[in-house]
């Protein structure tokens, strides 16, 4: 060893170090941890599977039929960007920015997505789906303003623009294929107030969010109760039962576990 | 309780927890790095490594050992990824594409943990635990070793050596990271994280669809990913994934793990230089910057000032219901203030100024409190630059902790703070100058620019988080970002070690009334100012065309 | 040597004369040569930018472009002007010195014993040559007097018109070439090498001909270079981002600041010049030159800038007691009569014995008697003076039958006993008491009886205690060096308020003390004049040799004080500190300035594409063009405005580092942030009416 040049000894040590540490940290450590975890926390270590094997209480699911329409007797989860929705092998967030307000031929803007979801949920729950910055037909209320005119860019012709005039300019619908990039972008707030809660119209970070807000659950309660012929109070009680409050009273937000709630409904 | 109050209590409880362990844990690390005794396991390891544990090394030898170790690590991680289908526990994964494997190998060895891949569809279990998680440990230990070497430079007098790299590496791993990781992993499993070796298994959902519930040694990797400020998630969506971050309190615990070493190292620093108050001063600088950043991020996210959040009613896009806006913002600040880069919510969909805070946190050089080790050495470099300007203003050759900051020291420190901004800006400029690379942007306008700026900021600062909209698994981005990660990690390390060597060789100057006191609020304020101004001055044009333009529209 | 008056002369400098600026203009223009400018990377970049924008303006002229071009060139010229003005002051001094360096001839002796000489030109003299110089002749070169004594007029180098005595042997043997012998005749052994005379070196120093950058200056230059590079990177890499931003906002028309090719060259250069630390870059060398110049104004010659900087770092100051801390002579402080003798009687005898005593001690007794006992000096005739000799160790007078003596206790007591007297023990007690308090007792006796004891005391110069308190606040430890016994030394040290003393000091002790301090990491400053001080002067970090001293001492030290005033050391330390403070303060100011410039230029460049960015235009500047031009003009004018400060140095008051920093941070940090907001706004208000500004 000692006859070896210093630099070579360093490299040999490096090689050995990687090998030794890989065995220790890459094999021994996870194996021992797994062993202990399996012994102590078997349920959690294996994915917190629910009774009946219909998934994991930690992984959200879509409660839609084969065509993607909501199954009315179930509480609905949030929108998901994971694969085709709640796909644990393709987790993802929406990743659109807070000023993503103009639709392109390739994709809808985040604003339009929000407006469309809000409108759909409003219709499903029988409440107003209106939101600020949304047109009545459920797209982003955004104008491109030119010196002589304004264009409601997310409303393709022949749609009727959500306002007739803007600062004296006539507002037109957007002619498909026309380039409106040169105009000044003006999102129009309108005077709507949203009834549909925030989490209902936004995709979660994981795409697997197992929870919805208490507000969204309560919005859905009348429909589910009616669909199942249950007393709404009973549904409300189940919602409370499957609501996780803030840990220690201040960590996180109260959240309703949708799968567990739906399972409980099925059981009752 | 209101959301805001709960969010503030969440932050306060984290501060309290870090404050509680700061002293005992910092003292523990002090003993780890200063004792001359080796325990039995370590003696066995040194024998296996073939190194003389009691031989001190000059900075050059120390740096060569570190680089050799890192090169071998890159090759091994690359190799395992490319051969994973031939190895056990591949759970059906194919070999990783060459440019992604290269990028990933560098990413994990440099403590960046940038993910150009999607974990659940790319990496087998063995790759995750024997290649990636191993680097989570050792890259963190390397960072701490460099920080300790620099501190030794300040503490020693007329010394030719700065410690022994192999000893620092092994001790940091065995005595600090591994015990916490083991206990922490079990805590996380109790909270709902999975820890098994199963592949995905299909279940039928309530409405008759199918869903693949994934398996894997997640908890054991999650814990070190946070503790070592690595950030590379088992899954694509990282700590937003319920199997990586199941509950509101695991979220708290993970943030605590992220912060505990970088903050506590300031205590270790104070002990090693024999002046605990110097540790308090550095802690104060980090604390002021971190608290300001966390609060600002919370304010921006909670007020939700942008068109979509206004339409939605809250900045909930890309955030989990269980965490809510505030705790997500706190996590985002913690992960970018350190070199972690784990995310529990998606920064791309943050409000313009909330997203900008995560960018700015990284641009600060990740010093508040920064990565394991890298935060401390980065902050000490800033202290050196501050001392230089401030020291001149008191009419003496500047000195920090008794060591003179002369031409050689300032040359090394200047180069250090040149490297990362240059990488960030040059990388961003190249990407933005090419229509082909711009096509990777998911968002348009200033937000698209922010995505590219974020990618290069994250890679060059070894953070690893992303404005995840950008498509980065292209050969060009894999190579460019890979280069940023390598240079952003090892050039500063070499400069820091050289500085350590140069400081160690000096005889300390005794402190007197004419010496600039570096433990008072005055100095703390100056370091904070220098840190912010250096960043603001360098990155303001780029920020103006990205998040600021977006936020002020 | 005039007795130094310890007035509170603070480090300050001459006022800046506007004429000086005009006189230095040709020099400033000459310095535009890139070959000269390359030493200053910051200004070199500005000049490159000026050339580039000139070319752009020629091909695409507009009032705005030309205005920027002019002000960029002015920026470089202002920077050169600062340096030229600083150098100009040195040149004036060099001219005076050159006048003294007339070509003289020398009478060179063959050997010391020889009586013949040959006449050679002064430049031909070599080391070791012996020359003879008589009254009215100019000494041809630096050397030591080896024979004779002469009064010499050294006003050519010191500016002091009173002649000084130079004699062979001892510590007053050094003579300087170019000075004039007024009386007598001396033989001088030449110690200089041809062309390296003291005057030659002085000229080189004050002209800054071979000015070396000092360690801190080098370090600061590195930092400034790094900042320059980072801003260069920041501005250049902004271009693709700007092009992209313009591209995604196709509706925005091209402007003077931004078009499809990105930010226009003129604006990009303007931004770069405003961001790089031009203020400190422009003034850095002027600060250094002016620092040396301030020393020269105090008649101190520093052999290197390094020594001046080191002076600021000094943490231990070795001060000779005699001449520095005390007035140099002991003085009568008290008359203590023995029992049965009145004070007045003693005073009268003491005065009588000292009337003819021309030693300082003797004079002080007469003065003390007059001040405290109202005894006028009197002319006495027919008195027989008994002078002091080494054998008798006493002096006195025989007058009108009285025999009065004063002197060392043992000698006077013996004289009393020999005359049949019986001095009591009381005298012994008095003598011991005075010795114990650090004073010197002189016993006064009159024929057979002891009258009492005169208490001679070292008199500490007025204001020394305050000075040393200041030093302590600055973190500098003062150590008094004296040949006195420890008891005496301690008493004086206590009275003067020094931190420590070294008693019965030999040159070896001194050297050992310096080494010990340096071992602990402290920098040591000292003064010295004797040949035996040379090793200690060489060892100390700042060694100030007295001009009256030997050439060995002058060679060993790294500064020479032409006034030979040991108190000067304190001022040197202050100048050293002030030099560093000025650099640090202007660096801080320069960097702090950038914030306002960003707020001026970024909205000016990009508010067209992103109107929201106009919110950053907090100064509400009237138009993008005027905003950019105002920033560039401010950037140039601030250099001119700060030239006086650079030359004079930042105000320095001795205080703790912490207080100093607070003050300078407040003035130059906060001031540096605020000043440009105001300045740019005012300039904008003035220039908004120019053509092309809207």
TrEMBL record, chain A:
UniProt keyword Membrane present = yes
Q: Provide the alphabetized UniProt keywords.
A: ATP-binding, Cell membrane, Ion transport, Membrane, Nucleotide-binding, Potassium, Potassium transport, Transmembrane, Transmembrane helix, Transport
List GO molecular-function terms, semicolon-separated.
Answer: ATP binding; P-type potassium transmembrane transporter activity
Q: Region labeled Disordered — which residues?
A: 77-103
Q: Name one GO cellular component term.
A: plasma membrane
Task: Name the InterPro entries for this protein.
Answer: KdpC
Q: Does the keyword Oxidoreductase apply?
A: no
Query: What's its membrane topology?
Result: Single-pass membrane protein
Domain of life, per UniProt, equals Bacteria
Q: Where in the cell is it found?
A: Cell membrane
One Pfam entry name:
KdpC
Q: How does it assemble?
A: The system is composed of three essential subunits: KdpA, KdpB and KdpC.
The UniProt entry, under HAMAP family, shows: KdpC
Q: What does this protein do?
A: Part of the high-affinity ATP-driven potassium transport (or Kdp) system, which catalyzes the hydrolysis of ATP coupled with the electrogenic transport of potassium into the cytoplasm. This subunit acts as a catalytic chaperone that increases the ATP-binding affinity of the ATP-hydrolyzing subunit KdpB by the formation of a transient KdpB/KdpC/ATP ternary complex.
Which protein family is named in the record? Belongs to the KdpC family.
Indicate what this protein is called per its UniProt record. Answer: Potassium-transporting ATPase KdpC subunit
Supply the source organism for this entry: [Actinomadura] parvosata subsp. kistnae
Q: Which gene encodes it?
A: kdpC
TrEMBL record, chain C:
- Active site at 320 (4-aspartylphosphate intermediate)
Q: Does the keyword ATP-binding apply?
A: yes
Which PROSITE patterns does the protein's record reference? Answer: ATPASE_E1_E2
Q: List the catalytic activities from the record.
A: K(+)(out) + ATP + H2O = K(+)(in) + ADP + phosphate + H(+)
Q: Pfam families, per this entry?
A: E1-E2_ATPase (PF00122), Hydrolase (PF00702)
Instruction: Name where it's found.
Output: Cell membrane
* Quaternary structure and partners: The system is composed of three essential subunits: KdpA, KdpB and KdpC.
UniProt protein name: Potassium-transporting ATPase ATP-binding subunit
Q: Which organism is it from?
A: [Actinomadura] parvosata subsp. kistnae
Q: Which gene encodes it?
A: kdpB
């Amino acid at each position: 060893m000692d006859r070896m040049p210093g630099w070579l000894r360093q490299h040999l040590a490096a090689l050995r170090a990687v090998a030794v540490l890989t065995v220790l940290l890459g094999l021994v450590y996870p194996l021992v941890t797994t062993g202990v975890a399996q012994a102590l926390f078997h349920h959690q270590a294996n994915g917190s599977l629910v009774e009946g094997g219909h998934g994991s209480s930690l992984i959200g699911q879509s409660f839609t039929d084969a065509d993607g329409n909501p199954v009315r007797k179930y509480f609905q989860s949030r929108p998901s960007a994971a694969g085709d929705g709640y796909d644990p092998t393709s987790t993802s967030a929406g990743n659109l920015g807070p000023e993503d307000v103009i639709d392109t031929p390739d994709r809808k803007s985040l604003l339009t997505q929000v407006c469309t979801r809000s409108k759909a949920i409003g219709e499903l729950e029988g409440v107003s789906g209106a939101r600020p910055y949304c047109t009545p037909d459920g797209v982003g209320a955004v104008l491109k303003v030119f010196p002589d005119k304004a264009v409601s860019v997310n409303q393709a012709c022949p749609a009727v623009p959500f306002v007739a005039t803007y600062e004296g300019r006539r507002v037109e619908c957007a002619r498909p294929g026309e380039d409106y990039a040169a105009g000044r972008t003006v999102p129009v707030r309108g005077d709507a107030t949203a009834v549909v809660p925030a989490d209902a119209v936004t995709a979660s970070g994981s795409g697997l969010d197992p929870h919805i807000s208490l507000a969204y659950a309560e919005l859905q309660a009348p429909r589910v109760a009616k669909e199942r012929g249950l007393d709404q109070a009973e549904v409300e009680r189940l919602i409370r039962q499957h609501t996780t409050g803030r840990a220690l009273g201040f960590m996180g937000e109260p959240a309703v576990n949708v799968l567990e709630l739906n399972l409980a409904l099925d059981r009752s | 309780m209101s959301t805001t109050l709960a969010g503030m209590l969440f932050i306060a409880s984290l501060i309290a927890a870090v404050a509680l362990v700061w002293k005992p844990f910092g003292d523990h690390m002090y003993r780890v790095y200063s004792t001359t005794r080796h325990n039995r396991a370590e003696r066995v390891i040194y024998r296996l490594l073939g190194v003389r544990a009691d031989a001190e090394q000059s900075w050059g030898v120390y740096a060569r050992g570190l680089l050799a170790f890192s090169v071998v690590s890159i090759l091994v991680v690359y190799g395992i990824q490319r051969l994973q289908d031939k190895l056990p526990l591949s759970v059906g994964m194919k070999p990783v594409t060459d440019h992604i494997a290269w990028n990933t190998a560098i990413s994990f060895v440099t403590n960046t943990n940038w993910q150009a891949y999607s974990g659940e569809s790319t990496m087998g279990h063995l790759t995750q635990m024997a290649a990636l998680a191993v680097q989570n440990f050792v890259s963190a230990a390397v960072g701490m070793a460099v920080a300790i070497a620099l501190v030794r430079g300040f503490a020693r007098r007329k010394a030719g050596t700065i410690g022994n790299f192999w000893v620092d590496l092994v001790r940091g791993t065995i005595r600090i990271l591994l015990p916490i990781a083991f206990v922490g992993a079990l805590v996380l499993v109790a909270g709902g994280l999975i820890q098994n070796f199963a592949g995905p298994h299909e279940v039928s959902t309530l409405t008759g669809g199918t869903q693949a519930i994934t398996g894997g040694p997640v908890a054991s990797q999650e814990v070190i990913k946070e503790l070592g400020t690595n950030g590379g998630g088992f899954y694509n969506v990282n700590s937003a994934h319920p199997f990586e971050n199941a509950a509101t309190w695991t979220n708290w615990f993970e943030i605590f793990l992220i912060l505990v070493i970088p903050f506590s190292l300031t205590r270790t620093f104070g002990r090693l230089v024999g002046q605990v108050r110097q540790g308090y001063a550095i802690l104060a600088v980090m604390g002021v910057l971190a608290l300001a950043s966390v609060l600002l991020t919370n304010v921006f996210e909670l007020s939700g000032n942008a068109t979509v959040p206004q339409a939605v009613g809250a900045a909930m896009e890309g955030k989990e219901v269980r965490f809510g806006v505030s705790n997500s913002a706190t996590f985002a600040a913690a992960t970018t203030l350190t070199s972690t880069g784990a995310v529990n919510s998606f920064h791309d969909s943050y409000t313009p100024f909330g997203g900008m805070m995560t960018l700015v946190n990284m641009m600060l050089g990740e010093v508040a409190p920064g990565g394991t080790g890298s935060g401390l050495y980065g902050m000490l470099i800033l202290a050196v630059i501050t001392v230089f300007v401030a020291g001149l203003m008191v009419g003496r050759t500047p000195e920090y902790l008794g060591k003179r900051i002369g031409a050689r020291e300032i040359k090394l420190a200047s180069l250090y703070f040149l490297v990362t901004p240059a990488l960030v800006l040059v990388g961003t400029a190249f990407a933005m100058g090419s229509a082909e690379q711009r096509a990777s942007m998911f968002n348009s306008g200033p937000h698209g620019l922010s995505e590219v700026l974020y990618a290069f900021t994250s890679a060059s600062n070894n953070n690893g988080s992303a404005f995840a909209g950008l498509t980065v698994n292209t050969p060009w981005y894999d190579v460019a970002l890979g280069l940023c990660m390598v240079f952003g990690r090892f050039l500063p390390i070499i400069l820091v070690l050289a500085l350590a060597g140069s400081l160690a060789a000096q005889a300390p100057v005794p402190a007197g009334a004419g010496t600039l006191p570096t433990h008072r609020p005055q100095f703390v304020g100056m370091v904070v100012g220098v840190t912010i101004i250096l960043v603001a001055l360098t990155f303001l044009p780029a920020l103006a065309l990205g998040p600021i333009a977006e936020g002020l529209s | 040597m005039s007795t130094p008056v310890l007035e509170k002369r603070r480090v300050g400098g001459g006022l800046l004369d506007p004429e000086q600026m005009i006189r230095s203009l040709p020099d400033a223009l000459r310095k535009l040569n890139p070959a000269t400018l390359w030493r200053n990377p910051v200004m070199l970049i500005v000049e490159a930018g000026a050339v580039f924008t000139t070319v752009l303006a020629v091909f695409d002229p507009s009032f705005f472009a030309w205005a920027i071009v002019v002000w960029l060139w002015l920026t470089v010229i202002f920077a050169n002007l600062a340096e030229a003005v600083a150098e100009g002051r040195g040149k004036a001094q060099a001219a005076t010195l050159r006048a003294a360096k007339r070509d003289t001839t020398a009478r060179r002796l063959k050997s010391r014993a020889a009586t013949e000489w040959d006449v050679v030109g002064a430049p031909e003299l070599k080391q070791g040559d012996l020359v003879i110089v008589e009254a009215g002749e100019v000494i041809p070169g630096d050397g030591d007097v080896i024979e004779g004594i002469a009064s010499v007029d050294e006003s050519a180098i010191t500016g002091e018109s009173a002649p000084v005595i130079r004699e062979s042997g001892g510590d007053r043997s050094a003579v300087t070439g170019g000075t004039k012998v007024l009386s007598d005749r001396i033989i001088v052994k030449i110690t200089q090498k041809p062309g390296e005379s003291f005057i030659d070196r002085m000229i080189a120093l004050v002209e800054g001909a071979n000015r070396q950058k000092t360690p801190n200056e080098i370090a600061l230059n590195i930092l400034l270079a790094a900042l320059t590079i980072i801003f260069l990177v920041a501005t250049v890499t902004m271009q693709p981002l700007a092009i992209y931003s313009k591209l995604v906002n196709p509706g925005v028309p091209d402007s003077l600041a931004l078009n499809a090719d990105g930010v226009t060259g003129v604006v990009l250069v303007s931004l770069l010049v405003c961001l790089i630390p031009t203020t400190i870059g422009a003034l850095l060398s002027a600060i250094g030159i002016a620092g040396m110049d301030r020393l020269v104004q105090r008649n101190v010659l520093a052999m290197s800038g390094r020594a001046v900087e080191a002076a600021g770092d000094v943490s231990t100051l070795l001060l000779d007691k005699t001449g520095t801390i005390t007035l140099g002579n002991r003085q009568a402080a008290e008359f203590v009569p023995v029992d049965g003798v009145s004070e007045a009687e003693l005073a009268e005898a003491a005065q009588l014995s000292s009337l003819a005593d021309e030693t300082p001690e003797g004079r002080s007794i007469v003065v003390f008697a007059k001040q405290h006992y109202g005894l006028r000096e009197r002319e006495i005739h027919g008195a027989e003076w008994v002078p002091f000799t080494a054998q008798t160790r006493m002096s006195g007078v025989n007058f009108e039958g009285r025999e009065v003596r004063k002197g060392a206790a043992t000698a006077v007591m013996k004289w009393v006993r020999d005359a049949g007297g019986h001095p009591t023990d009381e005298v012994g007690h008095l003598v011991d008491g005075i010795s114990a308090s650090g004073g010197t007792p002189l016993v006064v006796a009159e024929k057979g009886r002891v009258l009492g004891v005169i208490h001679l005391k070292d008199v500490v110069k007025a204001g020394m205690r305050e000075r040393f308190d200041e030093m302590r606040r600055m973190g500098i430890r003062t150590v008094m060096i004296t040949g006195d016994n420890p008891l005496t030394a301690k008493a004086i040290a206590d009275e003067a308020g020094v931190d420590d003393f070294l008693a019965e000091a030999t040159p070896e002790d001194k050297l050992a003390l310096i080494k010990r301090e340096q071992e602990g990491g402290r920098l040591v400053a000292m003064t010295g004049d004797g040949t035996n001080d040379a090793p200690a002067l060489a060892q100390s970090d700042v060694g100030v040799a007295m001009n009256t001293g030997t050439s060995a001492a002058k060679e060993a030290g790294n500064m020479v004080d032409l006034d030979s005033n040991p108190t000067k050391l304190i001022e040197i330390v202050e100048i050293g500190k002030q030099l560093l403070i000025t650099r640090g303060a202007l660096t801080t100011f320069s960097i702090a300035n950038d914030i306002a410039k960003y707020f001026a230029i970024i909205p000016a460049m990009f508010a067209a594409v992103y109107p929201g960015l106009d919110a950053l235009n907090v100064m509400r500047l009237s138009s993008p063009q005027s905003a950019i031009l105002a920033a560039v003009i401010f950037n140039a004018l601030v250099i001119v405005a700060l030239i006086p400060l650079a030359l004079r140095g930042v105000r320095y008051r001795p205080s703790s580092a912490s207080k100093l920093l607070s003050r300078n941070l407040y003035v130059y940090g906060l001031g540096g942030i605020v000043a440009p907001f105001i300045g740019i706004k005012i300039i904008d208000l003035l220039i908004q009416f120019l053509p092309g500004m809207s």
